[in-house]
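[Automated response] Your request has been received and processed.

Submitted sequence:
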Amino acid sequence: MGKGVYERLIGEFARLPGVGHKNAQRIAFAVLRMEPERARKLGETLIEARAGARACARCGNLASAEACEICNNPRRDTTRIMVVEDPGTLYQIEHTGTYRGLYHVLSEVFSPLEVMDPSTIRPEKLVARVRDGEVKEVILATSPTVEGEATALYLTRELKPLGIQVTRIAYGVPVGMDLEYADEVSLIKSIEGRHAV
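Generated structure:
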């Protein structure tokens, strides 16, 4: 294999979120050390996953059919919807095993610093879900960024008139972190998000 192909392989892996040049090299070497059959299956799986991926018609999560596995699961708590920015966040939350409600995945977040119509986050789909169902609480789980906070504020204004509880996930100091090294915003959010013990 020529150097150009190897460099292109590293370049493609380096374009993935959170993968720097060093990690891209490691992944490329791991792929090159694979048995040819295993490498072929990896390639086929990537192509198949990309070709079959679509947005769930109900919540916007990744799905291989009209509705995702979460929306189709009759054991989920249908009285709660957690609003997340993307399917990656949804899967992180699911991995914790602590939330059993439904989700609503936004197509994008509202950026108050750009000339952008806030309706691009399509609140009407979420509002329709709240009106049509037995939803008692919408949990806003957008990132603690300017865009995430603006999106949460905008959605709160859209949802409050519907008479449901709208909550925001708490932010604060990560578990295991020494308070001395916590940034000011994290400390403020920790104090504001305090609860009775």
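Summary generated for your ticket: Strands lie at 54-55, 62-63, 77-84, 101-105, 137-140, 165-168. The chain is about 45% helix and 15% strand.
If you did not submit this request, please reply to this message.
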